Amino acid sequence: MRSRRRGTLLSAPALILVALVTLFPIAFSVYLSLSDVQAGVDGYEFSFTGTDNYATALQSSAVWRALRFTALYTVVSVTIEILLGLGIAVIIDRMTRGTGLVLAMLLIPWATITVVSAQLWSYIFNGVYGLANHVLVTLHIVSSPVTFLNSPSGAFLALLVADAWKTTPFVALILFGGVRAIDKELYSAARLDGAGEWRILTSITVPLIRQAMITAIVFRVLQAFGIFDLPFVLTNGGPGSATQSIAMLAYNALFQDLNIGYGAAISCVTTLVVVVLAVVFLRAFRAENVHG
Amino acid sequence: MAAGKGANIAGAAIGVVFLLPVLWLGSSAFKPVSELGEFPPSLLPTPPTTANFSAAFGTNDFGSFLVNSLVVGVLSTVIVVCLGLPAAYGLSRTRMRGSGAILTGLLVISVFPVIATIPPLYVLLRTLGWLNSYQALILPYVAFNLPLGIWTMRNSLLPISQEMEEAAELDGAGTVRTILQIIVPQALPGIFVASVLTFVACWQEFLMALSFNSDATYQTAPVGIALFGGAFQLPYGTIFAASLVALVPIVILVLALRRWVVDGLSSGSVKG
Lengths: 292, 272
Hints:
heterodimer, A: mainly alpha, MetI-like fold, 13 helices, 75% helix, globular, B: MetI-like fold, 2 domains
């Protein structure tokens, strides 16, 4: 009994703070999304409008375009980062010298401020003097500089490269944790049995690091779905609104159109998608644990 | 193993590829403005100049953005550890009711998109008169980083033997003394991981910083770097000089605590 009360007392400050600053505001946000919110000098006036904001959002082509972009971006970027991260984790695991140094080099992109990365890649992908163009022209892949950020596919590519540069190391480190725990005897035994590298990767490595894979995928998918910093700075959602993420759309509704109710509705939709994805993933994770 | 040497070369190549963009940032920060717009670009600045740094720290006063980042990051990290460690202890070492459900709930909260809390927190902070202040950022940064911090520290508490604690208790030590003298020294790796992950997250955070503090007096480094603007062309020299300086503390911190960061990330930070 004493131990139980002590546990509650020790945990309470942290848990109350988390609830007050995350759960309570999200509940409040649902209320905002059902209201017309007018800002006054020192407060707000709320008038209940029911599901009007949601109806507007669901009929808006901008919302659907942003959802489509965000979903596509999430699937493509996470797939690339998981594949690259897996390859890197396997290579680092086989290194006999300099592992620490390479891990340190990988930590630097991970620690880089996303906004800095966005500015840097916008300079690299500049259509007139960017380094990317210099490389492409030198390799004779293109004859003159390409204006990456002026075409939807070029802007998408720039975002993918910038994202993969910063986030692949994070994925690689998570997967490396799984790979390094694998008993190396298994590899030798498989080689003796004549298994090739590809067979070893798909039949031994990947199944044995399933937990790390799921952790990495869950974190990356949910993070990617809320993406804001990178497109805000690198492409500003453009060209047009081709790379406008759902979080950017909510931000613009709030701070450009000053429409708090509508912004809250869009951010509630985003939250709903993320929570549904999280629950689905957690369920799958549990099922894996039960069967595995 | 035969793969060793090939893997060493491949690994080194991967490391270099990931490092190249930062080296490009470093080289560009020292180029004169005219050279930044040249095509083909020169590899190294000729001659190197510190003019961009003067522009960033002189006219643009980037130093005050860095100070704000430091204040917000350090205070948030300290509070996360001070509140998170007792919570981690309570959730792992006592027979507290519902701790399993609480831990799962924390995991779900830790992946909430930041945008979810922007509209309500903006309205609440404005009503309290707290927009454009340090607490406008510290409060949400602490709340958003506590869940993972609690998980990380809890995981590092699990393998610690209970015997020393029980002995201390028999000697009449109170809970606070037990935590400080017995638990903290053994949980240091977990505390390091939680601190470094929290500080890195705060140092990088952009959306809340942009939304809640529109007054430059309280803006943090990422906001400064994003909003440096020219009327026609981005002042890349100034941006890169400021960026390079903003990267230095975080890179030193991460490399110094490398072992714990790698362990923290590669143990998945969160898997129980």
